[in-house]
Amino acid sequence: MKSRLAPIIFTAVLVVLAFALFRGKEGAGLVGGWRRNTDQRAGPEETLFAMVQAAQRGDTEAYFDCFWGPLRTRLEQTGRDMGRRGFAKYLSGAAEAIKGVAVIGQPEPLGADLKVRAEMVYEDKNELQEFIFTRRRGRWRISGMDNPRRIKTVIPYGTEAYPLMPPAGSEDEEARP
Fold this sequence. Notes:
Elements: H1 2-22, H2 44-57, H3 60-64, H4 69-82, H5 84-96, E1 98-110, E2 113-122, E3 126-136, E4 139-145, E5 149-151
Antiparallel strand pairs: 1-2, 2-3, 3-4, 3-5
Helix pairs in contact: 2-5, 4-5
């Protein structure tokens, strides 16, 4: 009896955790359940999510609009060097593999700026990256970022929580726990 309950309890805990993380469209800071602030001002998280979405669409103007200062200048120069179409294709290709973005913790104040840690979730890896946000023209914009660092993935993206059971009445039903 105990061995039959363990998978059910494990699955129930995973479902509760998944619900807590994703919370539908009002999610917990993950791409796919894009978080919205409860106040009317957009926080740095929205800029981060907007940047990823713009990259996935290959929308270079919306992508550049998420940045500020010398970082934006370098990105725009790269866009000119590659050509808008080439840069758009590069952005969408690079961002296509992103399955989710999780903002970790609260933004850390750095004078007038904020530092935000985010985890980029891919099918085969996770990467941790820090972003510096500066408030300009009425919204937060990315003014700096470090190189992504690969981190150990405890449970790879897409891993089944529990092996699927054969349908009732099938030949394999006897193999069901």
